[in-house]
Amino acid sequence: MMVVKALQVCAVPWGYAGMHGSKVNPAVLIFSIFLDIDKRCPAMHELSIAQNLAELAIEAAKHTGMKRVHALHLKLGVLSGVVKEALEFSFDVVIEGTLLEGAKLIIEDIPVKVFCPACQEAHVLSEPFPMRCPVCGTKTSQVLEGREMELFSLKGV
Question: What 3 state SS string does 81-139 have?
């Protein structure tokens, strides 16, 4: 069980130096959550995604009559905005005490695929940036794949 040792919340007005000397919008809150295991808590973004993922998987498992889920298969695009390691950590936390407890989260990384207007073809990029056709070098913003996050399979009994 995770225990929060300290929660520090501070708002830094625009124009003032925030943490590490950066400027911060007044609406931005900086959260520092420290756990008893002396590791920073995963980003709240990934924690809420893990919670929603677990709820979706539990609902699907119950609908199909599964008593225990052994594995969840997830497609995660490079441009999804989700930190894979934080999602994995968060997932392990949120499944405790559920029919997903002990299940493996198997993540398939989906690379960025763009459409090149010059070549009139789709190409997979080896790196997400810069978004240029790897064949002719033309800039493109037409992303075909790489933004998705899709729970596509559950395995269990």
Answer: CCCHHHHHHHHHHHCCCCCCCCCEEEEEEECCEEEECCCCEEEECCCCCCCECCCCCCE
Structure tokens at 96: 């405790």
Order the strands of the 104-110 sheet from edge to edge.
104-110, 69-77, 149-156
> Which residues neighbour 86 within 8 Å (Cβ) at sequence distance 6 or greater?
42, 43, 45, 46, 47
- In this structure, what is the dihedral angle of CA atoms 119, 124, 128, 132, given to the nearest 10 degrees? -10
Phi, psi for 42 (deg, rounded to 5) = -60, 155
pTM: 0.68
Unique residue bearing structure tokens 């609908």? 63
Query: 71-87 as b/e, with b when 16 or more CB fall inside 10 Å?
Result: ebebbbbbbbebbeebb
Contact 47, 94 (CB under 8 A): yes
Q: Per-residue pLDDT tens for 6-25?
A: 222 223 333 333 333 433 33
CA 139 to mean position of chain CA atoms: 27
Report the distance separating Cα 61 and Cα 69, nearest Å.
Answer: 7
pLDDT of 44 reads 66
